[in-house]
UniProtKB/TrEMBL annotation, chain A:
Protein name: MPN domain-containing protein
Organism taxonomic ancestry: Eukaryota, Viridiplantae, Streptophyta, Embryophyta, Tracheophyta
Stored InterPro entries: EMC8/9 (IPR005366), MPN (IPR037518)
Family to which this protein belongs: Belongs to the EMC8/EMC9 family.
The MPN domain, residue ranges: 7-138
Organism listed in the record: Morella rubra (Chinese bayberry)
PANTHER family reported for this sequence: ER MEMBRANE PROTEIN COMPLEX, ER MEMBRANE PROTEIN COMPLEX SUBUNIT 8_9 HOMOLOG
CDD domains in the record: MPN_UPF0172
PROSITE patterns reported in the protein's UniProt record: MPN (PS50249)
From TrEMBL, chain B:
GO cellular component: EMC complex
Subunit structure: Component of the ER membrane protein complex (EMC).
Signal sequence coordinates: none
Family: Belongs to the EMC2 family.
Role of this protein: Part of the endoplasmic reticulum membrane protein complex (EMC) that enables the energy-independent insertion into endoplasmic reticulum membranes of newly synthesized membrane proteins.
One protein family per Pfam: TPR_EMC2
Membrane topology: Peripheral membrane protein
The name this protein goes by in its record: ER membrane protein complex subunit 2
Organism: Morella rubra
Predominant cellular place of this UniProt entry's protein: endoplasmic reticulum
Keywords attached to this entry: Endoplasmic reticulum, Membrane, Repeat, TPR repeat
C-alpha cells in the first residue's frame, strides 16, 4: 500500500483540525480523520475530522476510548477512520515524532492507506493576513511554561503562502512513515479551494474558541466532540 | 492546576472585561494568582491600564508588578517592542535587580537568542544559585531548542535540590510521557502521589501511564488507581470510570485461556459502566446509545 495514494480533505474537516491547533497553541494536539475511499477512482476522501486531545497526547486510555466511540458513531453513516492528524508542541519541530508514529501505526490497522498529516506550523504562521489588522494567531508551540511563572515568546518566520498547511506522511512497505515528496506519488488536496480564505476569516473572528475536542468532552460530557454547531 | 470553579470564575471575569464591564485589574490579579496563560488578554487589558496615567497611578506599588506581567505577556505574543519598553521602565526603577535581570534574560529567549539567554541565566545563577525560577527557565530553554535530554538532565538536577516542587515533577512526568519513556513518567507520578496522596489528578495520570505501559500487573495497578481517583472525586471523574472499563476489558483479553479463578470481580466494572450510563443519560443523552454499544464491546472478555 501507499505507492500511489491521493487524498482529498473536505474544508470543514481541514478547518476543524487547524482551528483546534490554534485553540491550544502551546501544546501538541491531535485528531482523527474520517472518510471513505471513492469507488470510482481510488481517491481517499476525508469527509470529516474529530479533534482529539491537547494534553497527555501520548497516553493510551483516552485514545482507545475515543476511537471506539468515534468509530461507532461514523460507522452508522458508512464512514470510517481513515487517517490521523498531529501538531507538534514546538513551532520549529517539523519531525514526525514517536508518539505520532505510534498513533499512526494504530490508525493504520483501521485503514492501510491511512495518512498522517503533520501540521506545518511555519506555513500556518505565514498565512497572509490580507485585510485583517490583528496579529495572526500563531502556534506558540515551543513554549514550555513551567507552570507559567515565566513564559517566552516564539520566533516568527516569513515564508510565502502555501496551498495547505500540513505535511503528508504515508506508510511504505517497510513500515516507515515517509514524507510525501513533490514527485507527486502521494498528494493531499483540499476539496474546496476557498478553504484558507475561510480559515483566515475564522482566525480573525477567533472561531477556534468554539472548537470542542475529546479532552473537553471527557472533562465535561455535555461538550459535544462532533462540533455540530461549529460551521453553522 | 486550576479547579473547575476557578476556571469558571476566570472565564466570567474575562467576558466581563472583554465586554467593557470593567474589572481589568481583578482579572489580571486572578490570572497571576492562578498562574494561567492568557497572554493576549493580559497584554490588551494590562496595556489599557498602563497607558492611562490615572489608572496607572491608582495602582500604587502594584504598577511595577503589572509592568512585569505585561512584559511577559508581550513576549508570549511576540510583541517584543512592548516587552522592551516595559523592561526599560522596570530597569530604571529597580537597577541591578535580579527579578528584572530574569526578565531581560527572558526577552533574549523570546527573541530566539538562545546562547545569550543561557549566558544571562548562568550569570544570574552565580549570584543567586538557589533561585528556582531561573533554574526552571534553563530547563525551558533546553526544551525550546528541542534538547529534550538536556531538559531532562537539568530538571532531574533541579529536583535533587528542590524535591518538593510538584510542578516540576509534573513537568518531568509530561516530558517523559511525550518521549514515550513511560516507566520514568510513572516514577514521577509515584513521587507526586507519595507527597500529595489526596490529589486525584496524580492518581489518574499514574493509572493512564500504567495502562499505556500495559501488561497484566500494570493493568491491575492501573485499575486500583482509577478506583482511587473515583474515590477521591466522589465518582464524578469520567476518565477514571472509562479507565476501569478499559482495564477490565484489557485484563480479560490478556487472561484469555489462563486460570479463570484469578479473575477479578466484575462488580467494579459494572458499577463504573452504570455510573457512566447514568451520567450520559443526564448530560449527554444523544451520545447514550454510542456509550452503551462501546461499553458492550468492552465487556468482551474470554
Amino acid at each position: 500500500m501507499g505507492g500511489e495514494s491521493r487524498y482529498e480533505i473536505a474544508q470543514n474537516a481541514y478547518l476543524k483540525l487547524v482551528l483546534h491547533a490554534l485553540k491550544h497553541k502551546a501544546s501538541a494536539v491531535n485528531g482523527v480523520l474520517l472518510g471513505r475511499v471513492s469507488p470510482h477512482n481510488d481517491l481517499v476522501e476525508i469527509t470529516d475530522s474529530v479533534p482529539l486531545f491537547h494534553s497527555h497526547v501520548g497516553l493510551l486510555p483516552q485514545l482507545e476510548i475515543s476511537l471506539i466511540l468515534i468509530e461507532e458513531h461514523y460507522a452508522a453513516e458508512g464512514i470510517n477512520i481513515v487517517g490521523y492528524f498531529h501538531a507538534n508542541e514546538r513551532f520549529d519541530d517539523s519531525e514526525l515524532g514517536g508518539v505520532a508514529k505510534n498513533i499512526g501505526d494504530h490508525i493504520y490497522r483501521y485503514f492501510p492507506q491511512a495518512p498522517v498529516l503533520l501540521l506545518d506550523n511555519k506555513k500556518l504562521e505565514a498565512l497572509p493576513r490580507s485585510k485583517d489588522r490583528s496579529p495572526v494567531m500563531q502556534r506558540k508551540s515551543w513554549l514550555p511554561g513551567i507552570n507559567a511563572e515565566a513564559i517566552g515568546g516564539k520566533r516568527s518566520c516569513k515564508i510565502s503562502f502555501s496551498w495547505h498547511i500540513a505535511l503528508l506522511y504515508t506508510r511504505d512497505a517497510s513500515r516507515n512513515w515517509k514524507l510525501a515528496g513533490t514527485d507527486g506519488s502521494s498528494q493531499l488536496t483540499i476539496k474546496e479551494p476557498s478553504a484558507n480564505v475561510v480559515l483566515l476569516d475564522y482566525i480573525s473572528t477567533e472561531k477556534w474558541k468554539d472548537v470542542v475536542d475529546f479532552d473537553d468532552h471527557l472533562d465535561d460530557i455535555s461538550q459535544d466532540w462532533l462540533n455540530p454547531e461549529l460551521f453553522k | 492546576m486550576v479547579s473547575k470553579t476557578e476556571e469558571t470564575q476566570l472565564s466570567n471575569l474575562e467576558s466581563q472585561v472583554d465586554n467593557g464591564g470593567g474589572g481589568a485589574w481583578e482579572y489580571l490579579c486572578l490570572v497571576r494568582k492562578l498562574k494561567v496563560r492568557r497572554s493576549e488578554k493580559v497584554l490588551k487589558h494590562g496595556l489599557s491600564i498602563l497607558n492611562d496615567p490615572k489608572k496607572r497611578s491608582s495602582l500604587g506599588h502594584d504598577e511595577w508588578t503589572l509592568y512585569e506581567q505585561v512584559a511577559i505577556a508581550a513576549m508570549d505574543c511576540q510583541c517584543i517592542d512592548v516587552a522592551k519598553d516595559c523592561i526599560k521602565i522596570l530597569q530604571k526603577r529597580f537597577p541591578g535587580s535580579k527579578r528584572v535581570g530574569r526578565l531581560e534574560a527572558l526577552l533574549l529567549e523570546a527573541m530566539g537568542s538562545w546562547e545569550e539567554a543561557d549566558n544571562a541565566y548562568s550569570s544570574l545563577l552565580e549570584d543567586h544559585p538557589l533561585d528556582q525560577a531561573i533554574h526552571k527557565r534553563r530547563v525551558a530553554l533546553a526544551k525550546a531548542q528541542g534538547n529534550m535530554s538536556g531538559a531532562i538532565e537539568l530538571l532531574n538536577k533541579y529536583l535533587e535540590i528542590f524535591m518538593a516542587d510538584h510542578d516540576a515533577w509534573r513537568e518531568l512526568a509530561e516530558i517523559y510521557a511525550s518521549l514515550q519513556m513511560y516507566k520514568q513518567a510513572a516514577f514521577c507520578y509515584e513521587e507526586l502521589i507519595l507527597s500529595q496522596p489526596m490529589v486525584p489528578q496524580y492518581h489518574l495520570a499514574y493509572a493512564d501511564v500504567l495502562y499505556t505501559i500495559g501488561g497484566l500487573e500494570n493493568l491491575q495497578n492501573a485499575k486500583k488507581y482509577y478506583a482511587s481517583t473515583i474515590d477521591l472525586t466522589g465518582g464524578k471523574n469520567t476518565r477514571a470510570l472509562f479507565g476501569i472499563c478499559l482495564c477490565s476489558s484489557a485484563m480479560g483479553q490478556l487472561s484469555k485461556g489462563r486460570n479463570k479463578d484469578e479473575k477479578e470481580s466484575p462488580e467494579l466494572q459494572s458499577l463504573a459502566a452504570t455510573a457512566l450510563e447514568r451520567d450520559y443519560k443526564q448530560r449527554a443523552p444523544d451520545k447514550l446509545s454510542l456509550l452503551t454499544t462501546a461499553l458492550k464491546s468492552l465487556k468482551v472478555s474470554s
